[in-house]
Design brief:
CATH class: Alpha Beta
Oligomer: single chain
Bound molecules: S-adenosylmethionine
CATH topology: Rossmann fold
Number of helices: 14
Number of strands: 5
Shape: globular
CATH architecture: 3-Layer(aba) Sandwich
Structural class: alpha/beta
CATH superfamily: Vaccinia Virus protein VP39
Order of helices and strands: HHHHEHHEHHHEHHHEHHE
Strand content: 5-15%
Mean pLDDT: 85
Distance between the termini: 31 Å
Largest sheet: 5 strands, mixed
Number of domains: 1
């Protein structure tokens, strides 16, 4: 497995910088996708549970559900509790279910944590009815091999927004920054890696899901067709700026920054649909785009809560940064303090994550 990926995990525990304490953006995204999850759950219920002869005769009919990349913290069991409640409520009101079954309790529920990457097969053939994966598929299986040492000090696809921030903070640095725009080969390399990874993901899930099984996938993505649009790049761009400042202050080795890239890709609805159509195992039922504020607030008028926005990125990237740069808590604190200062200058309307949710049926 790629070494960068081996070091990827969300911050553990329940402290101030833990993922558990800083995953309200992901929770908000989950709530926004509930209607699609409910539709898929009820479809599964009617296809595989309510009308099955096993259910009619009172025998249990197992339903397999997987939440891939569920991490730890309050979001981990959110999907299961919501799905079980939805199906349970439906089960009680469903006309075709006999009174005995209506009164029967829902039956035992068996849960398991499965180690391994979702870019490989995880469970036996035809055992799943519903797969959910939220805020995880934008993580690539590896940094695209073509871009090692070749990204000019950026850590992701970069754009000119970085330059604007740089001008705000230090006009003298502008000249050196003009060298730091993203070459088109970076964009191609990311898209190629995403296409290969997501195709592999679909093939694996197609083996594991029964025919007619459903998936709801939520990606951190972009609404624009342009991969360099600031909606997709700015939060990594801000981290790159902070890292560059740490280099200037002698806290991080420049060479390590030059060779560091985030194994991440923020896709678009067009790209995701194209991969699904080319792979061919799934039909697209619905696809939607929605935004969530960087600080997870609903308030459009107040300033961005830069502390919350910084801790959200810290909780997902700290493991990678510490292992890659060999830095400890003191430098990480300085880095994210700098991150906050930069976010304080980002207008609220720009400080939003774009999300893509897609609902699929195995055909
Ligand atoms: C931001 S968290 C999302 C957690 C949860 N789904 C939520 O919405 O709060 C991303 C999760 O994806 C996991 N992940 C990333 N790449 C993965 C892979 N290839 N296989 C399995 N899990 C992966 C990470 O370890 C992490 O737990």
């Amino acid at each position: 497995m790629d070494q960068v990926i081996q070091n990827l995990h969300m911050n553990g525990g329940t402290g101030e910088t833990s993922y558990a304490f800083n995953s309200s953006v992901q929770k908000k995204a989950f709530y926004k996708t509930k209607p699609l999850i409910e539709e898929a759950a009820l479809d599964i219920f009617s296809k595989f549970y309510a009308c099955s002869s096993a259910t009619m005769t009172g025998k249990s009919m197992p339903i397999g559900i997987a939440d891939l990349g569920c991490s730890s913290g309050p979001n981990t069991l959110l999907l299961f509790s919501y799905l079980l409640n939805t199906i349970y409520d439906k089960c009680r009101e469903f006309d075709s279910v006999s009174p005995e079954i209506k009164q029967r309790s829902f039956g035992p529920c068996f849960a398991a944590r499965i180690p391994g990457t979702f870019y490989d097969r995880l469970v036996p053939r035809d055992t799943l009815h519903f797969v959910h994966c939220s805020y995880s598929l934008h993580w690539l299986s590896q940094v695209p091999p073509e871009i090692e040492n070749n990204n000019q000090g950026n850590i992701y696809i970069s754009n000119l927004v970085h330059l604007v921030y740089q001008i705000l903070f230090n006009p003298l640095k502008l000249k050196s920054w003009l060298r730091h725009c993203c070459p088109p080969s970076m964009i191609d390399a990311h898209l190629k890696q995403f296409t290969s990874d997501f195709t592999g993901f679909l093939k694996c899930r197609s083996g594991e899901l029964v025919m007619g099984g459903r998936m709801v996938l939520t990606f951190l993505g972009r609404a624009s067709v342009d991969p360099t649009s600031d909606e997709g790049c700015s939060f990594w761009g801000i981290l790159a700026l902070g890292l560059k400042d740490m280099v200037l202050e002698g806290m991080i080795e420049e060479q390590k920054l030059i060779s560091f890239n985030i194994p991440h890709y923020m896709t678009s609805t067009e790209e995701v649909s194209m991969v699904i159509q080319c792979e061919g195992s799934f039909k697209i039922d619905q696809i939607e785009v929605f935004k969530v504020n960087w600080d997870s607030s609903e308030d459009e008028n107040s300033e961005v809560d830069s502390y919350k926005a910084a801790n959200c990125i810290r909780a997902v990237s700290e493991s990678l940064l510490m292992s890659r740069f060999g830095i400890g808590e003191e430098i990480i604190n300085k880095l994210f303090h700098r991150y906050m200062e930069i976010v304080d200058n980002v207008p609220k309307e720009k400080a939003k994550y774009t999300n893509i949710v897609i609902s699929l049926t195995k055909v």
